[in-house]
Amino acid sequence: MMWTEIDANISQVTGEKFQSSQRRSVGGGCINQGYSVCDGERTYFVKYNQASQIAMFEAEALGLQQMYQTATIRVPKPICWGTAGDSSYVVLEWLEMGSAQTKSWEEMGRKLAAMHRCNPLGGSQGGFGWDINNTIGSTPQINTWTADWGEFYTKYRLGYQFQLGRRKGGHFPQEKELLKAIPEILADHKPQPSLVHGDLWGGNAGCTVAGEPVIFDPAAYFGDREVDIAMTELFGGFSAAFYRGYNEVWRLDQGYEQRKTLYNLYHILNHFNLFGGGYLSQANRMISQILAISR
Fold first, then answer.
1. pLDDT in tens, 153-181
2. Which sequence positions are flagged as catalytic?
3. pTM here?
4. Which of 53, 224, 278, 290 has the most crowded CB, counting CB atoms within 10 A?
């Protein structure tokens, strides 16, 4: 029944009859189920979960749609989304993925910088945030529009993650000291609101078989572009060619090396909230490191 409804939605949105005859399970991440669906001519990527997760899929589709409309870096175009029975789903353009070469990494850096330079919404809203809340992994991500970046990051990024962390039994001895210090740490840094991917690690980036760079699974909002670059360094780092390409188009601001630990703390706190384990001690080490640099 679910697939019949999904086929019908694809048909309605595209204006072309679609009836999937081949369905193949593929990676959908650690949260969702992913499928390749094909009618013999056209192929789409479908992710699905419980019906209660429809807001997550809607936010993902809207983020991809906004990134797609910048006409900069390639993202899978969202086709449709909705609920079918006790499931929710999102249908995306199917992209055949291949191996990234040096020139692909350089182009990824250049095109991401171009996306960061696009400001179709952030400037008109006069600040940082997004029209709706979304998720980082399966954790809610609060995107209330805020004029000041330091205030936004303190309240809706680290402050919210600390709140969740305490509920999970986390102990952060220097939490208050850090949150108080952020306005001073960011005092001389005045970023423009950039459309950011929001969850840009190696698992959410790749290249098509033709060598075109692609990013996907966003947690989009308007923020400091450095949050994306910082996260690319968090879990092993991207190719050096990526950073070379990025800096060709838009060189990183002075002080980035000091700010990146502050920005990556958000993701480590989120990993503690999602997975527990050693992420708590890692978060507290990062807090100490940030405060030591700021003093």
1. 999 999 999 999 999 999 999 999 999 99
2. 199
3. 0.94
4. 224
